[in-house]
Every structure is written in structure tokens, then in C-alpha cells.
Write a structure and sequence with these properties.
This protein is of the alpha+beta class. Helix content is about 30%, strand content about 35%. It is built from eight helices and twelve strands. It has helices at about 5-15, 40-45, 65-70, 70-75, 80-85, 125-135, 165-180, 225-230, and strands at about 15-25, 30-40, 55-65, 95-100, 105-115, 145-150, 155-160, 190-195, 200-205, 210, 215-225, 235-240.
């Protein structure tokens, strides 16, 4: 089994910015995009003299189903339950760019959906790809929480569920240590939710959400470290006005 690497440690060392964008259409279909971008100013502080020594270039785009096809021999031997998990990611598109010359490190994960309930936990996408390539057990299941969504035409929900309380406690302990270790740095680590709805927003469960003038868009920002300590803090409910009101 692949060794589990602390998500928190990756985020802190990478000085990451995450933006989760959802566009919902009137019929419930739409697009979700998760963008993970390395903040160069923050990373420069953490990397020190090694920052100028980086030599990396990668520009890759793939659809998850490509790996199911390429590693059919591995996929065909999986239990039905694991095949079902992988199939949920089949039409997920991933673009990875890592350029030490342009100083751009960005991963963009995109999925079009007919209903948002069919969207899997996209934050696990790259790990599941590794599982297929290397024939690992489902290491992404070692995450201690999962993210899913629902939308019934009027009520949108972003739901985070803790799946491993023991691992959560370990992460909470780690963050205390890592905050002390990097306390001298000014690290920029926003975690931003941007949601676009087909009708005006009537109410939002989080009072910190910023609603656009036309009331059809919201933006909500967190600190990544806060989200790692308390993933459920990103739970959200958005109630839209009835169709008669516009």
C-alpha cells in the first residue's frame, strides 16, 4: 500500500491556494472546477535557497477514463465495489502544469454533470489515478473526510462528513506543530468557494458568504489550515428564491 502522506503537510509545504467553483443550470446540470495553485510568494519563503534550484516541467491533460482503459488488466481484477468508485470519476478531466521556469504550479480538475449528486469527491482524483497505475489499494479512502453535494432545484447543500475521527485528531495535532514551525512566514493559503446559481439566493447558512449584486452568485473564503482542522466548517446550505421571483 502506498504510504499515506498528510494532506495538511502537502498544503503547507506547497503554499497552496484552492478554489472550488460550481455553475448550476436551471435543470440541475452544470460544471464543477477545483483549482489548486501554488502561491509563489509563500512557497519562496518556505523553500528558501532551493526555490531557484528547481528544475521541473510538466504539462499534462487527461480524462480519468483514459487510465481505466490503459490499465484494463488491473481494473478488470478489482472487486465490483472498487470498480464502481473508479467509474464515478470516468469523465473527470485533469490538467496539471508544473513549470519551475515560468514559476507556475497548478492543477485543475473539471467535471460536467447532469445532476450534482453524481459528482464524486474530486479531491481524491489524483490519488485514485495513482492507485490504478501502481495497482495500490484504495489509498484515497485513507482521507479522513469526504465531500459531496445535493441540489433539488431550490436547496443546494455542500456536505462534508468525517470518515476517520482518529486520523482527524492526528491532523489537528500536526497543525499545531506545523503552525509553530512556519510561524515566521507570511503564507497565503485561501480556500475559496465560488458558486453560481440559476436563480436569486434567498438565504445562506454561513453568514460570511458574500453575495453578488444580482444575488445569483456567492463567494466564501476560508483558511486552508482551518479547513483541515475542522473540515465540517465548509458545510453550506443555499436556499434559492422560488421560480416566480426573479
Amino acid at each position: 500500500m502506498k504510504k499515506y502522506i498528510s494532506l495538511l503537510l502537502i498544503l503547507l509545504i506547497s503554499s497552496c491556494q484552492i478554489t472550488e467553483t460550481i455553475h448550476l443550470n436551471p435543470n440541475g446540470s452544470g460544471t464543477i472546477v477545483i483549482s489548486k495553485l501554488r502561491d509563489e510568494q509563500s512557497y519562496m519563503q518556505v523553500a528558501g535557497e532551493n526555490y531557484s534550484k528547481e528544475e521541473k516541467f510538466e504539462d499534462t491533460t487527461y480524462v480519468f477514463h483514459d487510465f481505466i482503459t490503459k490499465y484494463e488488466a488491473t481494473f478488470s481484477k478489482l472487486p465490483a465495489s472498487e470498480k464502481t468508485i473508479f467509474q464515478k470519476f470516468a469523465n473527470v478531466n485533469v490538467h496539471i502544469k508544473k513549470s519551475s521556469y515560468e514559476k507556475e504550479y497548478k492543477t485543475t480538475i473539471t467535471q460536467n454533470f447532469n445532476t450534482i449528486t453524481e459528482v464524486p469527491d474530486l479531491y481524491k482524483t489524483e490519488e485514485y489515478v495513482d492507485d490504478l497505475i501502481h495497482n495500490y489499494a484504495l489509498t484515497a479512502e485513507e482521507h479522513y473526510y469526504k465531500v459531496n453535494y445535493t441540489f433539488d432545484g431550490s436547496l443546494f447543500k455542500r456536505m462534508v462528513t468525517i470518515t476517520d475521527a482518529v486520523q482527524l485528531t492526528k491532523q489537528q495535532d500536526q497543525i499545531k506543530e506545523l503552525k509553530n514551525r512556519y510561524s515566521q512566514f507570511k503564507i497565503n493559503q485561501p480556500y475559496v468557494l465560488k458558486y453560481y446559481f440559476p436563480r436569486k439566493i434567498k438565504s445562506v447558512s454561513n453568514a460570511n458568504a458574500k453575495i453578488s449584486e444580482d444575488k445569483k452568485t456567492l463567494e466564501l473564503q476560508f483558511l486552508i489550515t482551518d479547513c483541515v482542522v475542522n473540515p465540517e466548517s465548509t458545510n453550506l446550505e443555499v436556499l434559492l428564491e422560488s421560480e416566480a421571483i426573479d
